[in-house]
């Protein structure tokens, strides 16, 4: 099952929990924040679509690479220091991105932003679990709610501030993160439990385990499809007359709400009734159908908007179930498994945006990236089907929520 039974009201939490949850929301906003302003940035900086898509690539690539090392760092300096260092880096690089004058500068600064994001999200849930009332289940629900809210609010804030200036969302994020930084310093008090140090090589060796390797490969191709939908659709909509930052913000706000609802409510319902790998084998192809329809109806505004929202429903389910599968696929320590899995997963997200725009330019149609999304999702499905015999633990292992707190915190944030 996706969630154990929680005890007590989820809303009756120590103030430290709400401080971390607020910072989580703002951190996850950074994923979709630039979505509504991609066309505006391209126009203001005279950048190509491929150059602009690199705003996703550098952010996700650095986040992914650093995921391999964050468990090593946090196990030595502690969760609170890791959280604060991550927040500080996000504040600095988001503000500098807002003050930049060229797309090249913004691309580089988004890489620094990704570093801060990796350090923060790798330890956020572990910290919430340590401070939350009502058990680990309540803490995880709070975290997933923060994830969904951040994904939903990010595009909306990006659209609102982007109507004023494309620089607005960057400065807005820096300001909100500064509030989160102060809140964690003042509200996350008491002794911090320092985990047992893990070897630097542990996540890389972990990928040699068949179960984890299969889940990482699945997530690699799945995340390519994820970011085709998230990062390319704004340009597909721009091509048919929807270029307003506010319009795009509302569309992707709806997408984020869909992700939040299904990740928190629908995924647990499905995994309570069928094997996790069965959920993946059913839902990944349904997401492929969404992208197939987007390719076929790429000239229809109504069709693309509806498909984005429907795609969000499937993405929410897959985010939760993929992470749970990866954590239970082997007997590796959960933080180690999570670092390896999430590192590969974010790299998949980094590859997709510039490749999508390159394909669109090569074939001369905004439909080409959606076809690419269909292909990678079919590959992801085949990996699960043919690798299923090594995923028995993922289907039958009993969840231990206190142990997987940090692990899901890393894996669920893309």
TrEMBL record:
It is found in: Cell membrane. This is MFS transporter. InterPro entries: MFS, MFS_dom, MFS_trans_sf, Tet-R_TetA/multi-R_MdtG-like, YfmO-like. It comes from the Bacteria. The chain crosses the membrane at residues 15-34, 54-73, 85-107, 113-133, 140-158, 170-190, 211-235, 247-267, 279-297, 303-322, 370-391. Residues 16-392 form the Major facilitator superfamily (MFS) profile domain. It holds the Pfam family MFS_1. Keywords: Membrane, Transmembrane, Transmembrane helix. It comes from Gryllotalpicola koreensis. It is a multi-pass membrane protein.
């Amino acid at each position: 099952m996706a969630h154990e039974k929680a005890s007590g009201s989820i809303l009756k939490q120590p103030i430290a929990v709400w401080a971390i949850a607020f910072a989580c929301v703002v951190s996850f906003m950074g994923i979709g924040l630039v979505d509504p302003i991609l066309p505006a940035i391209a126009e203001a900086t005279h950048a190509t679509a491929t150059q602009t898509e690199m705003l996703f690539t550098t952010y996700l690539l650095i986040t992914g690479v650093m995921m391999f090392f964050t468990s090593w760092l946090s196990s030595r300096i502690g969760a609170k220091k890791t959280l604060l260092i991550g927040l500080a880096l996000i504040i600095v690089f988001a503000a500098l991105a807002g003050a930049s004058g060229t797309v090249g500068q913004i691309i580089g600064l988004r890489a620094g932003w990704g570093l801060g994001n990796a350090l923060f999200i790798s330890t956020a849930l572990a910290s919430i679990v340590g401070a939350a009332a009502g058990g680990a289940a309540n803490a995880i629900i709070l975290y997933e709610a923060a994830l969904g809210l951040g994904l939903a609010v990010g595009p909306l804030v990006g659209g609102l501030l982007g109507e004023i200036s494309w620089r607005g969302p960057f400065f807005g994020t820096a300001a909100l993160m500064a509030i989160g930084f102060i809140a964690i310093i003042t509200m996350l008090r008491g002794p911090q439990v320092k985990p047992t140090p893990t070897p630097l090589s542990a996540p890389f060796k972990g990928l040699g385990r068949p179960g984890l390797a299969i889940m990482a490969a699945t997530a690699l191709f799945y995340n390519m499809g994820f970011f085709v939908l998230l990062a390319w659709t704004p340009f597909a909509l721009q091509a048919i007359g929807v270029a307003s930052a506010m319009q795009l913000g509302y569309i992707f706000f709806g997408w984020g709400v869909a992700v939040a609802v299904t990740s928190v409510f629908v995924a647990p319902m499905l995994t309570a009734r069928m094997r996790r790998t069965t959920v993946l084998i059913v839902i990944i192809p349904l997401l492929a159908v969404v992208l197939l329809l987007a390719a076929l109806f790429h000239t229809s505004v109504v069709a693309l908007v509806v498909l984005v929202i429907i795609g969000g429903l499937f993405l929410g389910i897959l985010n939760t179930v993929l992470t749970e599968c990866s954590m239970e696929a082997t007997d590796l320590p959960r933080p180690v498994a999570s670092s390896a899995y999430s590192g590969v997963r974010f790299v998949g997200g980094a590859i997709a945006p510039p490749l999508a725009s390159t394909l669109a330019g090569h074939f001369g149609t905004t439909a080409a990236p959606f076809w690419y999304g269909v292909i990678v999702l079919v590959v992801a499905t085949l990996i699960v089907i043919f690798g299923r015999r090594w995923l028995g633990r993922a289907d039958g292992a009993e969840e231990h929520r206190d142990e997987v707190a940090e692990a899901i915190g890393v894996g669920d944030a893309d």
